[in-house]
Protein 1
Amino acid sequence: MTLLILDRDGVINKDSDNFVKSTDEWQPIAGSIEAIARLSKAGFRIAIATNQSGLGRGLFQQADLDAMHEKMRALVSAAGGEIAGIFFCPHTPDDHCACRKPKAGLIEAIEQALGESAKGCYTVGDSIRDLEAGLLKGCIPLLVKTGKGERSLAKLAESPVQALKNLAVFNDLAEASLFIIQQHTTESSNND
């Protein structure tokens, strides 16, 4: 199994500047659930790393977040896939915690819980902070244009982080998943 780390809002489900606060508001992006199932069937262990400051801001409760994640897991399961773990930061930016992306605390929690290093694994996000968190742990960042992706793409030219200058950009998770599987298949055959 190969670890793969996905952001949630804007990658798997539609994002909102007003926060995604309930299962009704949690709506998958077209093709994202099928993409996760495809990746899972291809041998990837999928972990979700998501900032959820709406919890710390009191916009929704832990039970609401749990229900959204149960909905996501159920949809992926119905499509024949599996999510190995969902890791979230409940803090606001003012909390200065170690887990809020662009810090690497969520990825470190994934490594510890799943017993696998994130170094060299793909991480898919729609914001620069998703990608920066991955880079801190030696991940290969991929940007999707869904969610905040288009805005992030426009900001990349200004980023001082050289590794973000030439990163692969995809329309959505469905397109990124095909690339990831193809790269994985090529690497596997080269190692045989």
Protein 2
Amino acid sequence: MNDLNDDFVRHISSEFNEELEALRRSTIEMGGLVEEQLRSALQFYSTQDSSLLSQTGEIEKKINAAEIDLDEQVESLIVRRQPIASDLRLVLAVSKIVRDLERMGDELENVGRLSLECFPRGSEVGVPEIQRIAEQVAKMLSESLTAFARLDLTLARDIFEREREVDKIYQSALRAL
């Protein structure tokens, strides 16, 4: 077990432990919503099934609500518990993760709308690089949530390194378009 995980387990206040665990769990649940939205957006991209576009929008509403709830949890925890050291780092990390997940949700909703505008029904959809990017991003999102849940720094670093590869594929897609 790493030091961060040891500190997490050893709190004097079991109530504080429960609050931190609830914060982590809620963050992972929000990440699950983003994963679901990503699947819907990608399925819409490949099938142009408009029912998936409305599903993506509904999931976006849930993601926005989760962001508000988690922001309130973070604020409340900081004010009431005044966490220090690894606890404060965890709480601040959650705050940043939540902001990034919400932004991903916004972007995924945009992907659906742009797919509809750029690729009319019946047209050949996209370029092969887009599918490769989508697969890599989905895998990285899932693994990022796993790394956070397990506090696995090795996996987190590996994901960070692989992001550079996705950037290269993205540049290739831009050239193709």
Protein 3
Amino acid sequence: MERAAKLTIILGTNGTGKTTLLSNILTQSSQRALIVTPDAAEWLHYPENDLATPDRYNFSGIERHIFNPYGGSLERIAYFSRGILVFDDCRSYLKAATDERIHDILIRRRQRMIDVFAVGHGFNEVPPVFFTFCSDMFLFRTTDNIARRRDCLQKYDELRAVQARVNTKAKTQPHYNEYIKF
């Protein structure tokens, strides 16, 4: 049976509900999950996993990995398989010129049996390569200019309309979001 490989992008400014939504998705999933975060003060209710030895990949449930650009995080994350891989606040550690290892993870996510979530504060806070492989998106209130990502966004006109609608509704419902399937 062919496994669908999902790459979900979650966008929204601080306080809109991205972490709450993602936490609910992870908790309700039967898959194990690795949350990659740039900040040791985030996701504290999950154990930290440095992925330093092969046995550290054999966990169940939800664990977090504090991204260290000088400590081999990209090499370690590249070996994760069979679960959900979350890149929280991904622009903090994944720059515009996406590393070859991240690109490989995105391309080979079906073979590795992983679903990927990329979380950012807006369209410009997620590296463009993630939009290339995006299967669905949750859009909360954002303040950035979507036009900067026009060349890499599927359904650009629809997303621009959704962004305007979400931003309007978020004025009275701060956690309002919409789901878009690609």
